[in-house]
C-alpha cells in the first residue's frame, strides 16, 4: 500500500521527527477523503482513515520492540519509541488543528460535529461534578478519567494488536478541535478589539492555544501510547510463547514496567493539568 510504504518501524525510531510529517500526511489525506466520500460522517470516518494508515506501522513497531527484549538484553526501556509517539501525535493534532482553523465555519461544524459535541459534553460533565475546592475535586476526576482511557488503550492493543492507535487518533482529533476553537476565539477577540489582525496576532494565538493544551497533553498521551505498547507486547507474547515460559515471563515483566511508567505519566499529566495549565487561562 502507498501509505504503508512511506516509512518502516526501524527508520521511524531512528528519525522520529519525520513522523510529524508522516502523521500530518496521514491525517490530511484522511480528512480530504472523508470530505469527498463520507462528508456527512466525516467526524468519525476521518479518524478511521487515519487509523487505517497508521496501523501497519504500529504493528511493525510493536513486533520490533518485542524482539528487542531478546536481542538487546539491557535495552528494555523502549526509550527510542517515546519520541516516535510524540511526533506521531503532534503531527495528527497539528493537521486537525490546521483544518479546523482555516476551513469555513459551516464546513468545520459539518466535519468536526462529533468532536465538538464531545468537548461540550465533557465540559458540561466537569462543570456539573465540580463544587468546592478545585484541586481537591478536579484532580481525582482527571486521574480517574485518564486511567480509564489508559486501561482502554491496554485492552484495545491486547485484543487488536495495535488497537490503541484508535483511542490516540480520536484524542488527537478532539484536542485539535479544542486548540482550533481557542485559536479562533483569540483571533476573533483581537479582531473585535483592534479592528484588524496581523501575523503577530495569529502567532500569539497559536502559541498560547498549543501551550494551554499540550503542556499536559503530551505526558497524558504519552501515557496512552506507553500503555498501548504494553498491551501490544503482551498480545505478541501470548501468541508466540507458552504460558509461564521463560521468554513469556520476560515479556510480562517488560509490559508491567511499561504500565508502571504509564501510570506515573498519568499522575504527572493530571498534576500539570490541574496546577499549571490553568495559568494559561488568565
Describe this structure in words.
The structure is a single chain. The protein is mostly helical. It has one domain (4-281). It contains ten helices and no strands. Helix 2 packs across helix 4 (81-102), helix 4 crosses helix 9 and helix 7 packs across helix 9. The longest helix has 42 residues, at 199-240. The chain is globular. It starts with 8 loop residues before the first helix and ends in a 7-residue tail after the last helix. 39% of the residues are buried. The model is unreliable at 128-133 (pLDDT under 50).
Helix/strand class: mainly alpha
What overall geometry do the principal axes of the alpha carbons give?
Answer: globular
Count every helix, treating DSSP H or I runs of 4 or more residues as helices.
Answer: 10
Q: Could you give a short account of the major beta sheet?
A: none
- Which stretches are low in confidence, meaning pLDDT under 50 for 5 or more residues running? 128-133
Strand segment count: 0
Q: What is the number of independent domains?
A: 1
pLDDT averaged over residues:
77
Question: Helicity, in percent?
Answer: over 70%
Order of helices and strands: HHHHHHHHHH
Distance between the termini: 48 Å
Helix and strand topology:
Blueprint: H1 9-14, H2 18-37, H3 42-71, H4 81-102, H5 105-111, H6 113-129, H7 134-160, H8 164-194, H9 199-240, H10 246-275
Structure, briefly:
The protein has helices at residues 9-14, 18-37, 42-71, 81-102, 105-111, 113-129, 134-160, 164-194, 199-240, 246-275. With 282 residues, it is mostly helical. It has one domain.
Amino acid at each position: 500500500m502507498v501509505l504503508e510504504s512511506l516509512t518502516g518501524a526501524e527508520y521511524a525510531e531512528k528519525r522520529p521527527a519525520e513522523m510529524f510529517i508522516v502523521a500530518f500526511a496521514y491525517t490530511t489525506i484522511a480528512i480530504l477523503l472523508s470530505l469527498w466520500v463520507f462528508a456527512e460522517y466525516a467526524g468519525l470516518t476521518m479518524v478511521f482513515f487515519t487509523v487505517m494508515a497508521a496501523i501497519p506501522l504500529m504493528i511493525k513497531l510493536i513486533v520490533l520492540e518485542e524482539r528487542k527484549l531478546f536481542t538487546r538484553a539491557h535495552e528494555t526501556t523502549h526509550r527510542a519509541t517515546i519520541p516516535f509517539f510524540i511526533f506521531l501525535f503532534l503531527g495528527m493534532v497539528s493537521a486537525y488543528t490546521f483544518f479546523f482553523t482555516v476551513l469555513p465555519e459551516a464546513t468545520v461544524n459539518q466535519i468536526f460535529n462529533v468532536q465538538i459535541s464531545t468537548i461540550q459534553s465533557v465540559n458540561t460533565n466537569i462543570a456539573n461534578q465540580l463544587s468546592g475546592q478545585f484541586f481537591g475535586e478536579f484532580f481525582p476526576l482527571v486521574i480517574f478519567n485518564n486511567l480509564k482511557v489508559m486501561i482502554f488503550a491496554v485492552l484495545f492493543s491486547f485484543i487488536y494488536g495495535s488497537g490503541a492507535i484508535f483511542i490516540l487518533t480520536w484524542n488527537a482529533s478532539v484536542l485539535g478541535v479544542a486548540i482550533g476553537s481557542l485559536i479562533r476565539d483569540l483571533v476573533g477577540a483581537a479582531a473585535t478589539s483592534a479592528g484588524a489582525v496581523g501575523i503577530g496576532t495569529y502567532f500569539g494565538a497559536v502559541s498560547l492555544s498549543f501551550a494551554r493544551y499540550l503542556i499536559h497533553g503530551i505526558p497524558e498521551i504519552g501515557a496512552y501510547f506507553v500503555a498501548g505498547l504494553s498491551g501490544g507486547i503482551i498480545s505478541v507474547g501470548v501468541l508466540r510463547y507458552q504460558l509461564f515460559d521463560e521468554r513469556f515471563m520476560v515479556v510480562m515483566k517488560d509490559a508491567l514496567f511499561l504500565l508502571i511508567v504509564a501510570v506515573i505519566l498519568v499522575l504527572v499529566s493530571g498534576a500539570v493539568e490541574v496546577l499549571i495549565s490553568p495559568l494559561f487561562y488568565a
